[in-house]
Design a protein that fits this description.
The complex is a heterodimer of chains A (441) and B (162).
Chain A: H1 8-23, H2 32-41, E1 51-53, H3 54-57, H4 59-62, H5 65-84, H6 94-103, H7 108-135, H8 144-166, H9 171-184, H10 191-199, H11 206-237, H12 245-262, H13 272-283, E2 307-309, H14 310-335, H15 360-366, H16 370-391, H17 407-429
Helix pairs in contact in A: 5-7, 5-14, 6-7, 7-8, 7-14, 8-9, 8-11, 8-16, 12-13, 15-16, 15-17
Chain B: H1 3-46, E1 57-61, E2 71-74, E3 79-84, E4 87-92, E5 103-105, E6 108-110, E7 117-118, E8 124-126, E9 135-140, E10 146-154, E11 160-161
Antiparallel strand pairs in B: 1-10, 2-3, 3-4, 4-9, 4-11, 5-6, 6-7, 7-8, 9-10
The chains are: A mainly alpha (441), B alpha+beta (162).
Chain lengths: 441, 162
């Protein structure tokens, strides 16, 4: 480390250490300053705040659902890129490539399983994440816009999954997309055009396969990544995850104590002894550059008392969620193969022809009324979701599950969730040939 | 102290700003307009002018290939050719509900997907189908063959006399 060292031999001896030090500026931290610097000097870690509130680390508060969604997306990108090495978006070759993945490609079937199950998992995780955010009142100001981004992310996730559904070019794929794009054609005025542009032809064929492929591997992942980046950035700019009001009151108390130190003249009423008592505790803190970040909760002097350093608390928690997610996907992929039906037969639609499970609620609605079930109600639902944080702005019951103050809002949301889940269950298990009611037993 | 010199500045700038404001609006309008035009051009680009699948105008053979009373479903073309005496017509066999292929049944047409049923003329008689099966224009080409044009929908019940 000494600057006097000029001998090449010595440089060679120190080479491993010097290379390591040039990449990782900090040794494993043993002090608070070190912990802060570790978060700041690492590209991947600096996305996180240096300190994080204890409430954000509570597993039963978030269930790690946002992280699970992100890690599933990560797995999807990795396995998806690998699958691209073998896939050809051609109606004559796509299905054969699926068989090749099963039969000849090393780990082919396993990668396809991982990709398929992660995709299903991501739809579920994103939806559950939305439920968590709603039921804990976390969409309220100042987090309104991040909620809007979240709703957009849900839509893009659904569209990602939908476009991927066609690529194997089997019976399931072909008819699911036929049904799905027909639903789109019920939109007023633009419906027919949307369907034509989406399919590139009047029926599902080669053009549709190519279009869905481009959307699936290029356009939508780019859009999703951009939205995810803004979504993450906003979490910090909006003051971290939501937390109960009591916690903020605690933080305000500590802020008041800070004022005792910084401006004793203002607080003549406070006993000098109390100020003296507060001093040593406060002075022990280290404030890095994070103090400059403006936001409702992260300013200097307003740092919540119940915060802990991101290193190692937050990073360990994230690692655990990551490992659980990967382990879950690997396990499911070991025991269950992704479905692959017979190759496309345009003449013989399966009866019933079903869309992917997350669209079966939609398809169930469509069986009652094509326009209202397929376009009208979903549009109203999405618009309501988008506008809800701008309507329901009262800051009460934020950061707690099923807060009493939010009984009405939570009940309405749960009704929306339960109705959709029931419709999906009916569409999945209780609908047989000709979409007639059947018993699954 | 600070406010005193600030005031005339604002008054001065209000006049001076008019041109600046106008130009700002104009450039903003230009940029936004370019954005709209770009988006619109992209939309035009991705809407195909030529399709590579089944052509929408095709010939189906001589009228004599279809005896009177015939109801022949051409599944590849997704159209059913109807001949009644010297009258001919082409009815779509794409279900108006969700795009499955309807099959010719005793009473008209039936969809295997969601149970929509149509009568002989394609009017809905049951199931979730929202509207009748469209009729396509048929014409007699100079070479004596019947031509179906799926881009032109005609009034149901209008036949070609052959």
């Amino acid at each position: 480390m000494s600057t006097k060292t000029t001998s090449p031999w010595k440089s060679l001896v120190q080479l491993p250490e010097n290379v390591w030090r040039s990449v990782f500026r900090n040794p494993l931290p043993s002090s608070d300053l070190g912990r802060a610097q570790t978060s700041f000097t690492n590209f991947f870690l600096h996305l996180h705040p240096v300190k994080v509130h204890r409430n954000s680390l509570k597993a039963t508060f978030t269930f790690g659902l946002g992280l699970i969604s992100f890690f599933l997306f990560f797995i999807l990108v990795v396995t998806g890129v690998l699958l691209m090495f073998y896939y050809v978006p051609s109606t004559t070759q796509a299905y054969d490539r699926m068989l090749d993945l099963r039969g000849t490609v090393a780990f082919g079937i396993f990668l396809r399983n991982m990709h398929r199950w992660s995709a299903h998992g991501m739809v579920a995780a994103v939806f559950l994440h939305m439920c968590r955010v709603f039921l804990t009142g976390s969409y309220k100001p100042p987090r309104e816009f991040n909620w809007v981004l979240g709703v957009l992310l849900l839509l893009v996730t659904l569209f990602m999954s939908f476009t991927g559904y066609l690529l194997p070019w089997d019976q399931l794929a072909f008819w699911a997309i036929t049904v799905g794009t027909s639903i789109a054609s019920y939109a007023p005025l633009v419906g027919k055009e949307v369907k034509f542009i989406l399919l590139g032809d009047s029926t599902v064929g080669q053009e549709a396969l190519l279009r869905f492929y481009v959307l699936h591997v290029a356009v939508l992942p780019a859009v999703l990544s951009l939205l995810v980046a803004i979504h993450f950035w906003r979490i910090r700019k909006d003051g971290g995850l939501s937390r109960p009001e009591e916690e903020d009151a605690l933080a305000a108390d500590s802020a008041a104590q800070m004022e005792v130190v910084s401006g004793p003249a203002v607080v003549m009423a406070t006993s000098a002894a109390a100020a003296e008592a507060a001093k040593p505790v406060l002075q022990k803190r280290h404030y890095g550059i994070q103090g400059l970040v403006r936001g409702p909760f992260t300013k200097i002097g307003n740092v919540p008392d119940r915060s802990v350093f991101a290193w190692p608390n937050l990073f360990m928690a994230e690692l655990v969620v990551f490992l659980i997610t990967v382990a879950g996907v690997l396990l499911v992929s070991l025991f269950f193969n992704a479905p692959l039906e017979e190759p496309v037969n345009v003449m013989h639609p399966p009866n019933p022809a079903k869309a992917p499970w997350y669209f079966l609620g939609l398809q169930e609605q469509v069986s009652y009324s094509a326009f209202w079930g397929g376009v009208g109600i979903p549009t109203i639902e999405v618009l309501l979701l988008l506008i809800v944080p701008y309507i329901d702005r009262k800051i009460a019951g934020v950061g707690r599950w099923f807060a009493r103050e939010r009984l009405l809002a939570n009940s309405l949301f749960l009704t929306f969730v339960v109705v959709n889940v029931i419709l999906i269950i009916i569409g999945t298990f209780f609908r047989g040939p000709n979409w007639e009611f059947v018993s699954p037993w | 102290m600070k406010k005193a010199p600030a005031k005339p500045e604002i008054e001065e700038s209000e006049d001076a700003m008019t041109r600046r404001k106008a130009l700002s609006w104009l450039s903003g309008f230009g940029l936004f307009g370019s954005l709209i035009i770009t988006a619109f051009s992209n939309l035009i680009f991705i809407k195909p002018r030529a399709t590579y699948g089944q052509p929408n105008r095709f010939s189906i053979g001589k009228p004599d290939d279809f005896p009177s009373g015939a109801r022949v479903s051409l599944d590849q073309r997704r159209v059913c050719i109807v001949r009644d005496g010297d009258k001919m017509a082409a009815i779509s066999t794409t279900c108006t509900h969700l795009g499955c292929i309807v099959s010719v049944s005793e009473t008209g047409f039936a969809c295997p997907c969601h149970g929509s049923r149509y009568d002989q003329d394609g009017n809905v008689t049951g199931g979730p189908a929202p509207r009748a099966l469209p009729w396509y224009q048929v014409s007699l080409a100079p070479n004596g063959e019947i031509e179906v044009d799926k881009d032109t929908e005609i009034e149901p019940g209008s036949y070609l006399r052959v």
